[in-house]
């Protein structure tokens, strides 16, 4: 069963690599931030899959911290963009 988990983790990492390619080709800053958010979500998913595959519980803690940092990034981005846009 762990082989299936590792294969699934590799598929998620491949999807994350495709999302990271969008960062370079993003036309607006919002596109880049959304691509980073996508890669953050894929990173959390990979860590959760690896937690189930290996049984290492500390990976779960890392996944939670990573998810909180990604959410904080989006909040900061929206606040900065709302200050820059004229009303």
How would you describe what is shown here?
This protein is mainly α. The model has no long low-confidence stretch (mean pLDDT 85).
Can you lay out the helices and strands and say which pair or pack?
Elements (H helix, E strand, L loop, with lengths): L1 H24 L3 H26 L3 H27 L3
Helix pairs in contact: 1-2, 2-3
- Quickly give the structural class: mainly alpha
Shape: elongated
Question: Compute the gyration radius: what is it?
Answer: 16 Å
Q: How large a portion of the residues is in β-strands, by DSSP E?
A: under 5%
What does the largest sheet look like? none
Number of H- or I-type helical stretches: 3
Weakly predicted, low-confidence segments: none
Mean pLDDT: 85
Q: Percent range for helical residues?
A: over 70%
Elements, N to C (H/E): HHH
Distance between the termini: 55 Å
Quaternary organization = single chain
> Strand tally, please?
0
Keywords:
single chain, 87 residues, mainly alpha, 3 helices, elongated
Condensed summary:
The protein is mainly alpha-helical. Helix content is 89%, strand content 0%. It has helices spanning 2-25, 29-54, 58-84.
């Amino acid at each position: 069963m762990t082989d299936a988990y590792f294969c699934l983790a590799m598929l998620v990492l491949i999807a994350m690599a495709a999302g990271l390619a969008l960062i370079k080709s993003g036309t607006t800053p919002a596109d880049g931030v959304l691509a980073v958010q996508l890669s953050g979500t894929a990173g959390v998913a990979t860590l959760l899959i690896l937690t189930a595959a290996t049984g290492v519980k500390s990976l779960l803690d890392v996944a939670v911290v990573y998810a909180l940092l990604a959410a904080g990034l989006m909040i900061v981005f929206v606040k900065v963009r709302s200050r820059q846009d004229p009303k």
